[in-house]
Amino acid sequence: MRKYIFDFLQYLKNEKNVSRHTERSYLSDLDQFFDYLGEKDLAAVDHKALRLFVAHLLKLKLKKSSIARKLAALRAFFKYLNRQGILSNNPARLIATPRQEKHLPSVLTADDAHRLMDAPAAPASQHGPTELRDRAVLETLYSTGIRASELIGMDHDDINRYDRLIRIRGKGRKERIVPLGAIALAAIDAYVNQQQRSPGSNAVFVGPAGKRLTARTVQRILETYRKELGLQQKASPHTLRHSFATHMLESGADLRAIQELLGHASLSTTQRYTHVNLDALMEVYDKAHPKARKQ
Fold this sequence. Notes:
Elements: H1 2-15, H2 20-37, H3 47-59, H4 64-83, H5 110-118, H6 131-144, H7 148-152, E1 159-160, E2 165-169, E3 175-179, H8 182-193, H9 215-229, H10 237-250, H11 255-262, H12 267-270, H13 272-276, H14 278-288
Antiparallel strand pairs: 1-2, 2-3
């Protein structure tokens, strides 16, 4: 069984160019499924066994989004085995995904976002040596809308200072170019100029040991300043990503352009921000449409 999983993950890595995060997630999901099966033979896995596994996950009170991801891993795995001739059919082909709850993205107001950007440099801030790093992290996330994993993967060579552009390696190792605001670039330069770069290191954002920051550290940076400011709204790297998209939309940016900047494969993913921005859209409608106003 382990050999099949290993071969499948190698296929995903080499042929589908999946990210390391996806690779780890699929490994975890497949391990969980085969631990649940116990000694059952792979060829004996059928549609019923998969439905029972879904019921087992629901009993564990897992989020439906987590169950959907596990089913995606199983569908891909059994499809691979079927195509390789290891199994004569794909038992996961017709398995239904539980209907997921629709959660609107958490978004900061523009004022709260600006307060968060200024927090590391505030007179009351006691963060000392990490102040410049924290400011650069926050400004870059909000200026570009990139993911935490994309931020910590940034190299010095990825920054085009003349044109204020960054090359980003996103999900599935797909590359895209995103613009960088002047304030964010100045924050990065201020941080980098006081840095003692480790030999052979090309990472922009590093910890005290000279190694790349982790996504957990980026999360802690945001949470620290959220608490200092007393913000009630959740503040995570993804909150800044959502805020970037929403504030761009409010300022008149085209949805397709936002899709490109965020690196979304599907426009439907980007369209969530039209729901977040519904109040602003209704206000524009009421002002602009001749039949919207009461007589």
